[in-house]
Design goal:
233 residues, 3 helices, 38% helix, Ig-like_fold, glycoprotein
Length: 233
């Protein structure tokens, strides 16, 4: 039976209402963990590429899921001014099991592998009409059909732009000059120190020799004086 306080409200009822706050926090935390470890697809650090007309390009895409996958569905689509054209699609039953890929474009080849979570494709003999956005899409039923997509942009050109290396050349030249100058200064310093040390050694030798000569001469002079001062018997 619920007790009633002075205000007439049920204490047990208030306790049950208060218990909802921790429960809400737990649900929020669980949702946060779910979203962090959920399915993600990526086209890599670079989301676009420039390629020459007539060449073959790789449209990269990988997927990841901390929870794991089951019957992962994926596809590649090309956005042609708002109209989406499907190029490939497949279902990966479980991890490390290769899918049966359906290809809907004659110049497209699936080159991915379930063993490396790779769902990339190759586009052969590209033309200017192939330029645009390509969407890599995946859906994981194991995560209550959580889905994710990534866009890769293809730019088709007549010829590749020449990279201007002028600034790089200038920087390398300046650094080379500075390093060379430092080496020359160090060599000159070493030579100067070497010659100064040799001069000091010579000066020391001269001082020692001069001091020895002075002592010898002083000894001889003293001996002569003693001989002269000695009286004859």
């Amino acid at each position: 039976m619920a007790s009633v306080d002075s205000t007439g409200s049920s204490v047990s009822g208030r306790l049950r209402s208060g218990d909802l706050l921790p429960a809400g926090l737990v649900v929020a935390l669980l949702l946060g963990v779910w979203s962090v470890g959920g399915l993600e697809v990526s086209t890599g650090k670079v989301s676009s590429i420039e390629a020459m007309n007539g060449s073959t390009v790789l449209l990269p895409c990988t997927y990841s899921s901390c929870i794991g996958i089951k019957n992962l569905y994926f596809n590649w689509q090309y956005n042609d001014n708002g109209t989406m054209y499907k190029y490939v699609e497949a279902v990966i039953p479980i991890e490390n099991v290769e899918p049966k890929v359906l290809v809907y474009h004659e110049r497209v080849e699936f080159v991915g592998s379930a063993k490396s979570n790779n769902i990339s494709i190759l586009l052969y003999n590209i033309t200017f009409e192939d330029e645009g956005e390509y969407t890599c899409f995946a859906r994981n039923p194991k995560e209550k059909n959580r889905n994710h997509s990534a866009i890769f942009t293809l730019i088709v050109v007549d010829q590749m732009k020449e990279v201007d290396n002028t600034l790089t050349t200038i920087i390398v030249s300046v650094l080379g000059g500075v390093i060379g100058l430092v080496i020359i200064v160090m060599v000159i310093k070493a030579l100067v120190v070497h010659f100064l040390l040799k001069d000091d050694e010579k000066n020391k030798e001269c001082l020692v020799s001069s001091s020895g000569n002075d002592n010898t001469e002083n000894g001889l002079t003293g001996a002569k004086a003693d001989n002269k001062g000695t009286p004859k018997a």
